[in-house]
Specification:
Blueprint (H helix, E strand, L loop, with lengths): L4 H7 L6 E9 L4 E7 L4 E9 L3 H10 L4 H7 L1 H17 L9 E9 L2 E11 L3 E2 H4 L7 H20 L2 E2 L8 E3 L5 E3 L6 E2 L18 H5 L5 H15 L13 H9 L12 H10 L11 H14 L33 H25 L11 H9 L1
Antiparallel strand pairs: 1-2, 2-3, 3-5, 4-5, 6-8, 7-10, 8-9
Helix pairs in contact: 2-3, 6-8, 6-11, 8-10, 10-11
Length: 381
């Protein structure tokens, strides 16, 4: 169920002195709005409808004899699951600087339909990751800073025994100071005592192979972070993607155990970290986020920061860069610098011939004829 700004204004906000001003987007579990207070503060508001679709509401009303009270009660389990999963798990991590902050939440009844309710969550306003890392001049070092910040969030979550289970580009955002933050705990779970899970959760392109097989632990989150990092360093393409290989093909190749290739043009140490994160065998990856974070910090210390990320401007997604062209004038001939180089080289050659002749005691012959057109044509080939 998609909620418009007009609908939200009719429903009203449960938070005093706040009003909705703009719709920002629609996510997996609800719509997000920009809200402002009468004091000039800004936040994001996530609105999660319970039930989540008109069809679910219609079916439930029919099953409950059109009784809105009974219908609402039939969705109590769903409502509590959302609050216990996304909101409670995120609140547990509220003091981590690399996890988004939830300030308050409430359940609101639709004034026009007592069977329909909305979970409203006031949280910090953040910026889209893809837009931020698509800015001209974005460096490999900046992408590694993103990886470092999210690894820091995973360190915190491991201490709390929480698995995120849905790390992807859409669930990482950045604040106005350039701090990257992990968001959307809709699939998060507390780690079981045996350290493994069997439920199938996540977004396929970022999913670790063992999740598909049905048994995984914290290293599945490390894998997903590795895929996000690979994606941005590789010109916004997943591993293997390019030419005739599409995203679905690349995903299948990874699930079947094919090793991800190194990213062309990327720092060797950066490649080493990313490729270890996305290893098919979970035992070849970093065992903990703390181990990963330590390695990232050591590499960041020595990165110069000027190397740009790959930018693939070819419609065919061909990753092969164009060769550097020979400098030419606008008319298609040699540039002035190239002509000067040819003349100086020819003078040096004649001088060498004269010196050799003088040393040998022979008469100095006439200098050889030089066909400048041939030299220029040769340079233009």
């Amino acid at each position: 169920m998609e909620i418009s700004l007009k609908m939200l204004q009719k429903i009203g906000l449960p938070f005093k002195d706040w009003r909705p001003v703009k719709e920002l987007g629609v996510g997996t579990y609800g719509s997000v709005f920009r809200i402002e207070s009468k004091y000039g503060d800004v936040c994001a508001l996530k609105v999660i409808p319970i039930p989540t679709s008109d069809a679910d509401l219609y079916d439930a009303l029919n099953g409950c004899g059109n009784d809105p009270v009974k219908t609402r009660a039939s969705f109590d389990y769903q409502l509590n699951m959302v609050r216990d999963r996304e909101i409670a798990e995120a609140k547990q991590c509220g003091d981590c600087p690399n996890i988004y902050k939830i300030y308050e939440d409430a359940v609101v009844e639709d004034p026009a339909n007592a069977a329909q309710r909305y979970i409203m969550v006031r949280m910090e306003l953040l910026n889209d990751l893809k837009t931020y890392l698509s800015r001209p001049g974005t460096s490999q070092k900046e992408v590694m800073k993103m990886m470092r910040d999210i690894a820091s969030a995973l360190v915190y979550m491991e201490r709390k025994r929480i698995l995120h289970r849905d790390i992807k580009t859409a669930n990482i955002m950045v604040d106005g100071r350039g701090v990257y933050k992990l968001t959307d705990f809709g699939e998060a779970r507390t780690m079981q005592m045996n350290g493994s899970h069997t439920s199938f959760r996540g977004t396929p392109y970022y999913m670790a192979p063992e999740v598909q097989r049905g048994k995984y632990d914290n290293r599945a989150d490390i894998y997903s972070l590795g895929i996000v990092t690979y994606y941005f360093l590789n010109g916004k393409k997943y591993p293997f993607v390019g030419g005739s290989i599409r995203a679905n093909d690349g995903y299948e190749m990874r699930m079947k155990g094919q090793r991800c290739p190194a990213i062309p043009g990327v720092d060797r140490e950066v490649n080493r970290i990313v490729l270890r994160c996305v290893a098919y065998d979970m035992n070849e990856r970093y065992s903990t986020a703390a181990e990963l974070l330590s390695d990232i910090n050591n590499v960041l210390k020595h990165m110069k920061g000027g190397e740009p990320v790959r930018r693939d401007a070819h419609p065919s997604n061909d990753p092969t860069p164009n060769p550097t062209p020979t400098p030419r004038t606008s008319g298609g001939g040699l540039s002035p610098a190239a002509i000067v180089s040819i003349v100086l080289g020819s003078v040096a050659l004649l001088t060498l011939i004269i010196v050799l002749i003088i040393v040998s005691g022979s008469d100095i012959p006439d200098p050889p004829d030089i066909d400048w057109r041939n030299i220029i044509n040769w340079q233009n080939r």
